[in-house]
Amino acid sequence: MYNVKTYNAISQAGLDRLTNNYQVNKTDDADAYLIRSVDLHEAEFPKNLKVIARAGAGFNNIPLDRVTKAGIAAFNTPGSNANAVKELVIAMLVASARHMFAVANFSAKNIHADISLMKKTDDRFKGTELLNKRLAVIGLGHVGSLVANAANDLGMKVTGFDPFLSSDAAWNISNQIERAASMKAAIQDADFVTVHVPKTKETTGLIGAEELKQMKDGVHLLNYSRLGIVDNQAAVDALDAKKVASYITDFGDKVLYNREDVVVTPHIGGSTEEAEANGSIRGANIIMKYLETGNVKNALNLPDLNVPFNTPYRLTLIHENIPNMVGQIATKLADNDLNIEGMSNAAKDKTAYTIIDLDQEPYEDLVNELTQINAVIRVRIIKNQK
Ligand SMILES: NC(=O)c1ccc[n+]([C@@H]2O[C@H](COP(=O)([O-])OP(=O)(O)OC[C@H]3O[C@@H](n4cnc5c(N)ncnc54)[C@H](O)[C@@H]3O)[C@@H](O)[C@H]2O)c1
Ligand SMILES: O=C(O)[C@H](O)COP(=O)(O)O
């Protein structure tokens, strides 16, 4: 029986996919965590924990270095909520161009007045159209590419900036989207700027005072990525200077409160029934695949390694990516008369992963003995359930 512990609101749709070999939230000593945005940076991890699946895209809540050193595989599910974010961002583009929040505030405060009369005396709610306006999309991954394509479908001129764009992601982007060679080239002519990058050391403050200065007067700015990717104090200064017309973000920050030109939504970009179900189902499938086969696809901290599991037993080893690891492991097995049916190895950055298929049950102390090899981080024996 495997134990799964959940954090945050995890859609039942994914938990329903777990087979009878799984129980949920029965113990803290879990084999797997299924999480959303819970901040794990200060968390202690149980000894048994083998895998963390983040139902959603952003993984800045997972201390990847520490998790990897503990031999825990970490995965996210990028794309599972991308459509939800796209729809909200498009709504916010329209809302900012048509002053929808000011209109909503006005009508809420004037419930006894005939609001239709106000149009005759006051044109403060006259808006602009998105058609032919320019949108800069910073980050063209799962979310950014959908936003760029949808804005293009609405007749906007769209410029994308993503120096690290994968070739897979590039296939998803309409050939109408112009690719900028620099941040400045992307933002300098834009009427709207929207940011869709992961939160890292490099992207913290990606949109700061300098970038805001490079933008057109009256630009509308959106941040549905993470707190800190836009420097909020710099954004407030630019709003005060009327450089930026409006700022819409999914992440609260006290410098933003009580302003008519700012709208803060409570981190709901990915909060739809469909997106939460997608993330939870993908997270549950990731957990089952990793625990039952050791196979890895698109982990955050391990290389891809997918080997058909056709033997009765399998050993998996997470170890440092240094010379002679595979040799030492194979020697240890040979010294103990264990025949290797198949062996595969791959590396990602400083971490390597080895899968060894065995036609017989390994002796009990093998895990300890292999773990004692210098630079071996974690060893698992998996019994084939098929
Ligand atoms: N508000 C929400 O609820 C919500 C929902 C989903 C995602 N997000 C956030 O949005 C981020 C993006 O999500 P995604 O699913 O598109 O992720 P993704 O990994 O598919 O795409 C991120 C893209 O950003 C690009 N990038 C990285 N650094 C960059 C830089 N300095 N300049 C320009 N581009 C850069 C990458 O090359 C990649 O193409 C997530 O990491 C998460 O923090 C928020
Ligand atoms: O990165 C994400 O996927 C989103 O920010 C959603 O976060 P949540 O799962 O906490 O809603």
TrEMBL record:
Keywords: NAD, Oxidoreductase. It catalyses: (R)-2-hydroxyglutarate + NAD(+) = 2-oxoglutarate + NADH + H(+); (2R)-3-phosphoglycerate + NAD(+) = 3-phosphooxypyruvate + NADH + H(+). Pathway: Amino-acid biosynthesis; L-serine biosynthesis; L-serine from 3-phospho-D-glycerate: step 1/3. The keyword Transport does not apply. Residues 314-384 form the ACT domain. Its EC number is 1.1.1.399, 1.1.1.95. InterPro entries: ACT-like_dom_sf, ACT_dom, D-isomer_2_OHA_DH_cat_dom, D-isomer_DH_CS, D-isomer_DH_CS1, D-isomer_DH_NAD-bd, NAD(P)-bd_dom_sf. The keyword Ribosomal protein does not apply. Belongs to the D-isomer specific 2-hydroxyacid dehydrogenase family. PANTHER family: FORMATE DEHYDROGENASE 1, HYDROXYPYRUVATE REDUCTASE. Catalyzes the reversible oxidation of 3-phospho-D-glycerate to 3-phosphonooxypyruvate, the first step of the phosphorylated L-serine biosynthesis pathway. Also catalyzes the reversible oxidation of 2-hydroxyglutarate to 2-oxoglutarate. This is D-3-phosphoglycerate dehydrogenase. It comes from Nicoliella lavandulae.
